[in-house]
Amino acid sequence: MNNQEHIQVFGIEWFKKHQRGLLWLLNSPFMRKWFKWMLRIRKEDAGYDGSARIIELAPHFYTILKGSTSEGKTIFKTEFRCHGKFSKRLYYAFKPLWHLLHAWDSIFADAFIPALSFGFNTLLMYPETGSGVNTCDGIITHNPGKTYLDTRDDPAGDNAAVSNAEDNQGGGGGGTDIYLHRTIYNFLTSSLGTGAQILAANCQIFIRQQTNGSRDVNLIGCTPASTNNLVVGDYSCYSALLNPTKFGAVDQNLPVAAINRYIWHEFNQSGKDYINRTGVTSLMNRDTNDMTATAGSYADSFWNMSDQVGNSRDPKLTVEWLPVNMISKPKTKMRPRPFAPGRSK
Question: What global pTM score does this model have?
Fold first, then answer.
């Protein structure tokens, strides 16, 4: 196997090539508990339950069989991440082994006996967060030394980061010392396919710490310049400056004690319609006071991002869906009896 024939290790095509083995590890009664732990599929995740059969695994999502409708149509449930979470978990769990195979391929197999290559020559080429290849999440911060209204209405922030361990979401200050933080989450949801019917959806974000009182959390639509990196101009890529359409049915007012847990945004119909069946679903997290016409007090909340070190509870988008034109399964099956001479049909 020459270098041109190598597929990207831990990329989408690599997962497709090894799908059968990966699914066996995820669903085998003997291996699934350990393998899910290794991938950091936890008890609060859709695929944790042993009865949840995972039917597809990719670098940034997995899909389970959820059940069926009253018409017999199969319901799928997919949990998306903003980054190649499961690629990273596979890499770090067996890092010495992968580098051993990479050394074998690079030094010996690819050059002299390609038939003995393991296909790991591309191990060190996997794109990192912010490289402009994978989707990402990140934060845009703004502290211009202006009044609240000017800070809120500015077209660009001061700094854009896609590798922060956590997001200091919110804002604060007074007079001309106002600061605002806006967070963006990009989920590659193209695996749903054109015409997929979204039955339910929610976005879950893990809160680690909160100070200075309670706050509201709001997810809205946004259009960043790129879905695989962020720039300061994405500060104003929201769907609307004031009173934009919120995808949660109600705001979630969090008490100070509500920490170290996932906060759920159950999507309303606007949110379900917004999910991009053929591309990337981009969401922005904004403070309620940031979305209204008058200044107000602020609070700081610290949320896990995709690169949170030592904690794998990163943002996730969970979607229950039906593929387009799915044929209903018959509720009863009519099986013809074998024909025997002398017996009526």
Answer: 0.85
